[in-house]
């Protein structure tokens, strides 16, 4: 019988202060915190953000959730992690799974929810501040006004889909911009979205950077935690 409870907790973009009061209260009474890793030995950014809010008695469990082309190996690893989570819940543990930003946006947590869906697990999801909301505040860049159409786009999507989204949007939020940056910039320029744009990297982290001229490709050094905000008209701010 699963007597424990599973929490998905969004810890925000990077600043430990940009975490909700509810998330902090929950973290302080959790038995086990799961810090997901993409590969063994990698540092968990989400754990670093949450650590100041954890009780000294909280157990930290680092689990690898590989994103590899070998689907069989990936499925095997994820099923093993599912077993570890269920074992903790069977012991009556309160278990928290940490995610950067918000748990319901481009998060490993979504896949964990699907794995646990048939297991009658008690689940509570606690939202977090997204990187693009934090970036917009940092850069004083309004995301949407009046009847603006605002579109969230993973820059890794197919070029044809990217083009369609850029055509119909007033404002865009581009995530995962560290890949194929020159082509992405070209598409923004073609659709009149590069002149009123900003790129924020590692928002809320000690090495945060803000670029207000994204047309200067030589100065852009996007990381995995980089977001571009762009609009077709001036902000007026």
UniProtKB/TrEMBL annotation:
One of its GO terms (molecular function) is precorrin-2 C20-methyltransferase activity. Residues 5-211 form the Tetrapyrrole methylase domain. CDD domains: Precorrin_2_C20_MT. It comes from the Bacteria. The keyword S-adenosyl-L-methionine applies. Pathway: Cofactor biosynthesis; adenosylcobalamin biosynthesis. Keywords: Cobalamin biosynthesis, Methyltransferase, S-adenosyl-L-methionine, Transferase. GO terms for biological process: cobalamin biosynthetic process; methylation. Transmembrane segments: none annotated. Coiled coil: none annotated. Pfam families: TP_methylase (PF00590). Belongs to the precorrin methyltransferase family. This is Precorrin-2 C(20)-methyltransferase.
